[in-house]
Amino acid sequence: MDSKEAKTVADFLIADFENEMQTTLRVIEAVPNGHLDYRPDSKSKTGLGIVRHITLEDEWLLNCIANGEFTPPPDDSDACGIMNSAGAVARYKEKVPVALDRVRAMSGEKLVNVIDLFGMIKAPGVNFLAMAVKHSVHHRGQLSTYLRPMGGKVPGIYGPSADTQ
Question: Which structural domain, as residue segments, surrounds residue 61?
């Protein structure tokens, strides 16, 4: 892919990410604070753990792409300061659009530069932008399956849910 094509693809993916962000925020907002410790299995993250993971890693992935290198992922333990869905929503609204704007400002030349993800994957930055969209949607879907067992309601995601009809 040349730099012009990379910029075109990135523009599409950025618009897609912006659309998905609104749905992600609705899902995080729907998490009931009284059951943040819910997990369907001992191997699974808690509801709060997934909320933190989405909030922190969406920002982290985008900033790593903009920086052209991957740094260690953020700590999503209690030390991160996100203790409920409202705190996560506030941080997401503050940090993720700024990180996305940093990617938006990248030139096509920078988007085709290969980035090394800890020796596991080496790919152009634009490829990692596609991964960032998928990563966010994947974990949002995971969190949406927690909502009813946690006592919450599933918001519409790609149309109405049984809770929004």
Answer: 3-147
